[in-house]
């Protein structure tokens, strides 16, 4: 294909979009509507996954050493933890540290501890794993080492959270794909109306000897222009609404003191990525919609 | 140039468009195709344009075998043919000039050639002054002349006209026929399907007459009502 032909097709695409302004606007609003629904779902998912991850991050494994553990044994355990790739971070707590933590935690009830010395407690490791789902395997491996009295972690919680996260991920993909398919078919139908109104034009092009791609390209470009406009508009609307919701919810959560449990993620740098996703989806929806719509009218 | 060998066209609903038609049209001929409505004139033209394919028999146009042709070749067949319809079929969103240059853009002609050829074609049909006007601002006769300019701008070897004067008054019809004759004088083969008895009678060209899908007459310098 020659450069001037490409130029011609692009200028045709723009001209047609403008000359069929009403239909173009109808299609743009369909893109906006579909991407808004898509966007709302995307935002909910991002927040759900973020909050679930937050909860998971707090999961810790407590390793209690025997009271009479030898220093060599304790060091061996620490070395093993330190060198394990699954470990995100860990702390080694002496009996004293554990004791003072306990005192601090009990506050005014700390008089319960009167007369006791740190010796009644255990030396302890507090471990955070990169993926809490590894907790069970990790603990089993560690428990074979000498000097360990007990290993404690919230197994129920870990198992449930891994399950929820896994299904949320799968569910998200499924729902987003279904939403996209529905959107493309709605947009294809809208574009079909504009193509139908111009089926005579397509027929004339065919009679003059245009090949199929020569006819298709201006429509594809038109679809992409529509998709782009729709994507940018719905991105502006989505991000505005999101900011409003974010400010409101975070303020309310702070007022009720539940900020650590319920938090709307600030999108910050993610805005660029979301805009990118919107634009790609808009362009693809427009192009695919046009190809589907023109196909039928090319058989002249 | 154009050859039909025992061509039959049956439509899927059972209607017969053309039955056992055999004829040959040589380069540079001017041929009227006449006959009552439903006699098969349009079917014949549609076969030449590969808008339909024959059910039986062979059709050759400019060396393309219509009866046995790949879909991807259709544009190349059509680029060698100029077509004019009763309802003009101009692109409403394009000016007269763009309607004509469009036919050259499709064949990826050089911009230089487009700038040279389009004014020549418009001058030939007498529309030089209306190049920037849109189709809806033109009379029927003028619109048909734009369609003629579009049909000839690529110098096709064959011009096919389906009832080109069907929507025009007698005086304008004559102008269009004169133009078709001019085009023919310049070497283009011209096929015209028509109902216009007086025109056919006066122009004394070859006449192919169709009745119920059969070719009933094929006469040189014929009349519309040849048996009289």
Key features?
heterodimer; A: 300 residues; alpha+beta; Alpha-Beta Plaits; 4-stranded antiparallel sheet; 9 helices; 4 strands; 71% helix; 8% strand; B: alpha/beta; Rossmann fold; 6-stranded mixed sheet; 7 helices; 25% strand
List the helices and strands and how they pair.
The complex is a heterodimer of chains A (300) and B (228).
Chain A: H1 3-19, H2 21-57, E1 61-65, H3 71-83, E2 87-93, H4 95-106, E3 124-129, H5 135-143, E4 148-152, H6 155-197, H7 199-208, H8 212-256, H9 270-295
Antiparallel strand pairs in A: 1-3, 1-4, 2-3
Chain B: E1 2-10, E2 16-25, E3 30-34, H1 41-48, E4 56-61, E5 64-65, H2 74-79, E6 81-84, H3 96-106, H4 111-124, H5 140-152, E7 158-162, H6 170-185, E8 189-193, H7 197-203, E9 206-211, E10 214-219
Parallel strand pairs in B: 3-8, 3-9, 6-7, 7-8
Antiparallel strand pairs in B: 1-2, 1-4, 4-5, 9-10
Overview in brief:
The complex is a heterodimer of chains A (300) and B (228). By secondary structure, chain A is an alpha+beta fold.
């Amino acid at each position: 294909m020659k450069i001037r032909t490409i130029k011609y097709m692009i200028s045709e695409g723009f001209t047609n979009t403008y000359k069929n302004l009403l239909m173009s606007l109808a299609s743009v609003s369909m893109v906006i509507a579909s991407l808004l629904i898509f966007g709302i779902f995307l935002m909910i998912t991002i927040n759900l996954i973020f909050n679930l991850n937050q909860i998971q991050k707090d999961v810790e494994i407590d390793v209690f050493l025997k009271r009479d553990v030898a220093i060599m044994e304790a060091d061996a355990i620490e070395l093993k933890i330190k060198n394990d790739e699954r470990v995100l971070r860990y702390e080694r707590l002496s009996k004293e540290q554990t004791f003072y933590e306990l005192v601090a935690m009990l506050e005014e009830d700390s008089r319960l501890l009167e007369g006791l010395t740190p010796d009644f407690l255990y030396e302890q490791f507090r471990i955070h794993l990169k993926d809490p789902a590894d907790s069970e395997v990790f603990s089993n491996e560690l428990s074979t080492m000498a000097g360990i009295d007990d290993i404690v972690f919230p197994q129920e919680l870990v198992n449930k959270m891994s399950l929820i996260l896994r299904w949320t991920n799968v569910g998200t993909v499924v729902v987003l794909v279904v939403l996209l398919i529905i959107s493309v078919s709605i947009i294809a139908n809208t574009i079909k109306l504009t193509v139908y109104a111009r089926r005579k034009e397509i027929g004339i092009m065919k009679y003059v000897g245009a090949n199929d791609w020569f006819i298709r390209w201006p429509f594809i470009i038109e679809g992409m222009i529509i998709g782009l406009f729709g994507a940018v508009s719905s991105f502006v609307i989505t991000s505005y609404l999101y900011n409003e919701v974010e400010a409101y919810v975070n303020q309310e959560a702070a007022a009720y003191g539940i900020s650590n449990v319920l938090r709307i993620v600030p999108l910050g740098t993610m805005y660029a990525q979301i805009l990118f996703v919107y634009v790609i989806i808009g362009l693809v929806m427009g192009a695919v919609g046009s190809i589907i719509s023109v196909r039928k009218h090319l058989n002249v | 140039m154009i050859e039909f060998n025992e061509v039959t066209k049956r439509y899927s609903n059972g209607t017969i468009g053309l039955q056992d038609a055999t004829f040959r049209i040589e380069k540079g001929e001017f041929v009227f195709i006449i006959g009552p409505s439903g006699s098969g004139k349009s079917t014949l033209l549609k076969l030449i344009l590969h808008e339909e394919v024959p059910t039986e028999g062979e059709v050759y146009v400019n060396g393309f075998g219509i009866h046995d042709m790949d879909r991807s070749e259709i544009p190349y067949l059509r680029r060698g043919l100029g077509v004019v319809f009763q309802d003009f079929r101009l692109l409403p969103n394009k000016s007269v000039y763009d309607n004509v240059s469009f036919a050259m853009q499709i064949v990826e002609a050089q911009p230089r050639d487009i700038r040279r050829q389009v004014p020549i074609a418009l001058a030939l049909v007498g529309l030089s002054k209306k190049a920037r006007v849109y189709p809806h601002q033109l009379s029927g006769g003028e619109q048909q002349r734009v369609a003629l300019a579009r049909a000839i701008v690529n110098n096709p070897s064959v011009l096919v006209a389906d009832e080109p004067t069907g929507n025009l008054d007698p005086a304008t019809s004559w102008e269009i026929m004169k133009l078709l004759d001019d085009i023919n004088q310049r070497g283009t083969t011209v096929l015209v399907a028509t109902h216009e008895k007086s025109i056919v009678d006066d122009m004394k060209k070859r006449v192919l007459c169709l009745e119920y899908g059969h070719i009933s007459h094929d006469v040189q310098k014929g009349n519309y009502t040849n048996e009289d």
